[in-house]
């Protein structure tokens, strides 16, 4: 088994990036919100100013915040003209969704394998909490994409590799924003399948089964890809109202 000993300062910065990006993407910190000062965040989180500055720099690089000299750091509108999430071309958006899932297949399958080797008890608890919250929303028939993405982001965090985390954070700014603009028509069967796939990934990571983690993530994202391609086909035929139906689901009978 390969072990990883992450740099503590880097890990603290990643944790701060994860928390702030999740709150921004979930709408808890809407566009225009001024973030607390470095000093306030330092005191609230019990971290150094270096950690805070590194986290804010990463958020700015991802286009989630902007720093105005002498004024402060503000959340920016993540839905911008020309971006995937702001696209008015349904067909183009669906094609982009396919491309993004293809990228996720090359990224997250290996991230899951590394997570199975390196996940700490506290990281498993965070993954479990995200899953439970997502499942609760599913039962209510509400949108759980934000929490589902947080689960995937937690897996990236387990790798202790900042490039995995940065890549996933960037993808999240597109996928979650797209989800918030559409209303998915997801059946109970599809929700049940989504829950089962999530649980299979978590179980494999929790029991440190590297190959099972790879297989579970590959199956989940392959199903997502199949669904996305069906959206592209349906859009071409003029029968799609939005692109969100593909995210995290696939028809069990297909």
From TrEMBL:
List the InterPro entries hit by this protein, alphabetically. Answer: GntR_C, TF_FadR/GntR_C, Tscrpt_reg_HTH_GntR, WH-like_DNA-bd_sf, WH_DNA-bd_sf
Pfam families reported for this sequence: FCD (PF07729), GntR (PF00392)
Question: What is a single molecular function from GO for this protein?
Answer: DNA-binding transcription factor activity
List the SMART domains.
FCD (SM00895), HTH_GNTR (SM00345)
Domain of life of the source: Bacteria
Tell me the keywords, alphabetical order: DNA-binding, Transcription, Transcription regulation
Coiled coil ranges: none
Q: Domain named HTH gntR-type: which ranges? A: 10-78
The yes or no answer to whether the keyword ATP-binding is present is: no
What name is this protein filed under? Transcriptional regulator NanR
Provide the species name. Pseudomonas fluorescens
Organism phylogeny: Bacteria, Pseudomonadati, Pseudomonadota, Gammaproteobacteria, Pseudomonadales
């Amino acid at each position: 088994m390969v072990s990883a000993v992450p740099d503590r300062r880097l890990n603290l910065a990643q944790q701060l990036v994860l928390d702030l990006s999740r709150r921004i993407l979930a709408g808890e910190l809407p566009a225009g919100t001024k973030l607390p000062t470095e000093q306030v965040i330092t005191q609230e989180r019990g971290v150094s100013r270096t950690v805070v500055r590194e986290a804010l720099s990463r958020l700015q690089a991802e286009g989630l915040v902007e720093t105005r000299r002498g004024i402060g750091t503000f959340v920016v509108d993540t839905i911008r003209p020309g971006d995937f999430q702001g696209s008015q071309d349904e067909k183009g958006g669906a094609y982009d969704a396919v491309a993004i899932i293809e990228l996720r297949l090359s990224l997250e399958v290996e991230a899951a394998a590394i997570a199975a080797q390196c996940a700490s008890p506290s990281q498993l608890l965070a993954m479990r909490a995200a899953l439970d919250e997502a499942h609760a929303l599913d039962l209510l028939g509400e949108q759980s994409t934000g929490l589902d993405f947080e689960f995937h982001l937690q897996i990236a965090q387990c790798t202790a590799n900042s490039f995995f985390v940065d890549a996933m954070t960037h993808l999240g700014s597109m996928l979650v924003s797209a989800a918030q603009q559409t209303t998915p028509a997801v059946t109970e069967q599809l929700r049940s399948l989504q829950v089962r796939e999530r649980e299979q990934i978590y179980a494999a990571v929790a029991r440190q089964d590297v190959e099972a983690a790879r297989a579970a993530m590959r199956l989940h994202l392959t199903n997502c890809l199949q669904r996305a391609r069906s959206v592209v086909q349906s859009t071409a035929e003029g029968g799609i109202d939005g692109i969100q139906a593909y995210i995290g689901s696939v028809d069990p009978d297909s």
